[in-house]
TrEMBL record:
One of its GO terms (cellular component) is plasma membrane. This is Fatty acyl-AMP ligase. One of its GO terms (biological process) is fatty acid biosynthetic process. Residues 68-453 form the AMP-dependent synthetase/ligase domain. It comes from Lentzea tibetensis. The keyword rRNA processing does not apply. Belongs to the ATP-dependent AMP-binding enzyme family. Pfam families: AMP-binding.
């Protein structure tokens, strides 16, 4: 099936609009769907859903149970809103409407595929993805969130889509009517209401495949069960709330793509878990006008909002003082921020810039997570300011933790939840580090995914680690270096990105920041083994190349005591990024011949 989907997409790129418009057939596998056997069948457990005095406990065994319960408790309250161009309410759904549409899609799916089939969701931004995703869960088929189909073959989203298709071999594609005409997908819009025909089934356990961002290689599908996801949603509530807090009706605003882990959780599943309203907009709308994200936070009085650092940085660069002065951000109490690594300067600059419109620095909620752990591993604190500590830079280069003032500033990623066990080990081994050593972060707990789809070797290596002193307990190798200090987790660098220079360990992000500040012509940089790749601003193409190279070498030597062997200048747009805005470092290593 993967080959069939790929050929459809190739045909789509080369065909005329008239020819594409003649295609209405669906891509349905005729053979029996490959079954999925969960490693750990989920169990029912009690979570608390509701708000204020109406909070109640209920047994929830699956995300289907959760959505059905919310439809009973608050049928006419709005669950989701989509803003066209990030401004105008184009569509909305109440919890009752959400439940009915999901049931109708589930009935329709059960007539076409068997339980356990993989269903690719290629919806453009909007609420059709939300109903289709839940429809898959109601039908007990495995949802596979993916980017929408695009004609530009070099687009990162298109590349990601093809990688997902090849990996999971989907049985069916769901999308909107426009895509139906383009690639033969089946549309989930305007279906007849058949919700009364839906009958509950015992879920097989697997909810969806969450594909990784592809920062270090091709995206891999993490198998997530209903239990994994519910546990992580509960963990997020625990990390982001005070013991005596009551969950009043709140709103979140999200521009993150819903096919990414952070976008799916913060924009769709966490609001559903809490019974909150979620206002969605497209990432493209945000990128064009970042002020629209802040305007929506102000307009809807959003209290809990999440974004990677690049979202806050874009607001700093593109939101004018005039736009800022019309905002009211005083109700924004949790501003989740994540990145590799977190930077104190982003937190400081955003808090200072938007203080006049009511934003508080204490609202920042630094956090750390990954698709393999559903999303969140650690975060906080929810009260007080983000934890920023200073450490001896020379000691860190030797893998040691020594507090020093003044020193290198690092932002803590919060205290890991008690349901998770976090251990720091010497990279690639099962030997725990000493308390003052930097090592690889390993995590174990009920919200860790079951493994990678159709990749037993990768699953064994990444999800099956053991640690001396912890018995047979299985740990996830995060691939990140870090350490625990005063109860807080600090994440410093990916193991594979670390630069080994004369027995020292340099973090590429620090070298890249130095390179970017070395010369006005430098737009972006990527530091890989022995090389600094530098992307040049379009307006600076006439600058002598040696002038730029020498400036970068001099700055890196002065700041990091590293005589860079090679500085490669790249044309604008040459550095490859994932769909979440991260450098595809594995691909960057092959760019040397592309320089000038």
């Amino acid at each position: 099936m993967g080959g069939a989907v790929r050929s459809r997409l190739a045909w789509f790129k080369s065909s005329t609009r008239r020819t594409r418009a003649t295609v209405v057939a669906g891509l349905i596998r005729e053979s029996v769907a490959r079954p999925i056997t969960p490693v750990n069948p989920f169990r029912s457990f009690e979570i608390r859903i509701g708000r204020g005095d109406a909070m109640l406990g209920t047994e929830v065994a699956s995300l289907v149970d959760l959505c059905r319960r919310q439809a009973e408790v608050r049928p006419h309250e709005r669950a989701f809103v989509f803003l066209d161009s990030g401004v105008v309410e184009q569509d909305s759904l109440t919890y009752q409407q959400l439940d009915r549409r999901a049931r109708s899609i589930a009935v329709w799916l059960r007539e076409r595929v068997r339980p356990g089939a993989r269903v690719l969701l290629c919806h453009p931004p909007g609420l059709d993805f939300v109903t289709a995703f839940l429809g898959c869960l109601y039908a007990d088929v495995v949802a596979v969130p993916a980017p929408p189909v695009r004609r530009a073959s070099g687009d990162a989203r298109h590349t990601r889509l093809l990688g997902i298709v090849d990996d999971c071999d989907p049985d069916l594609i769901l999308s909107t009517e426009d895509t139906v005409l383009d690639v033969g997908a089946l549309a989930t819009q305007n279906l007849d209401d058949r919700s009364d025909e839906w009958r509950p089934a015992s879920p097989s356990g697997v909810a969806y495949l969450q594909y990784t961002s592809g920062t270090t290689g091709k995206p891999r599908g993490v198998v997530l069960t209903h239990r994994n996801v519910l546990r992580n949603l509960s963990l997020i509530v625990s990390a982001g709330s005070r013991p005596d807090e009551r969950y009043e009706r709140s709103t979140t605003v999200c521009w993150l793509p819903v096919f990414h882990d952070m976008g799916l959780i913060s924009g769709v599943l966490q609001p559903l878990f809490l019974g909150h309203e979620s206002v969605l907009m497209s990432a493209q709308s945000f990128a064009r006008t970042p002020a629209n994200w802040l305007r929506a936070i102000s307009r809807y009085g959003a209290e809990i909002v999440a974004a990677p650092s690049l979202g806050y940085d874009l607001c700093l660069r593109r939101v004018t003082d005039e736009q800022r002065d019309d905002l009211d951000l005083s109700r924004w109490r949790i501003a989740a921020i994540s990145d590799e690594p977190l930077r104190a300067r982003t937190i400081d600059a955003f808090a200072r810039r938007f203080r006049p419109c009511g934003f508080r620095r204490e609202a920042f909620f630094p956090c750390y997570g990954m698709a393999e752990s559903t999303v969140l591993i650690s975060g906080g604190p929810v009260e007080g300011e983000p934890v920023v500590a200073e450490f001896d830079a020379t000691a860190l280069e030797r893998g040691l933790v020594r507090e020093a003032r003044p020193g290198k500033q690092l932002v803590a990623c919060g205290d890991p939840d008690p349901s998770l066990r976090v251990v720091i080990t010497r990279p690639g081994t099962d030997v725990p580090c000493e308390p003052d050593e930097v090592g690889e972060v390993l995590v174990s707990g009920p919200s860790i995914g079951e493994g990678y789809w159709a990749d037993p070797e990768g699953t064994r290596t990444t999800f099956g680690a053991t640690v001396l002193g912890h018995g047979d307990r299985r740990f996830l190798r995060t691939g990140n270096l870090g350490f625990l200090w005063r109860g807080q987790l600090f994440v410093t660098c990916r193991v594979t990105d670390l630069l080994e220079v004369d027995g020292r360990q340099l973090y590429p992000y620090d070298v890249e920041a130095t390179a970017e500040a070395a010369h006005p012509a430098v737009k972006a940089a990527c530091a890989v083994a022995g090389t600094v790749l530098v992307e040049i601003d379009r307006r600076s193409r006439t600058t002598p190349p040696d002038e730029i190279r020498n400036a970068v070498r001099a700055a890196v030597w002065a700041e990091h005591d590293w005589n860079v062997p090679t500085v490669v200048l790249l044309s604008p747009g040459a550095l490859p990024y994932t769909t979440s805005g991260k450098l595809r470092r594995a691909d960057c290593r092959s760019l040397h011949p592309g320089g000038y």
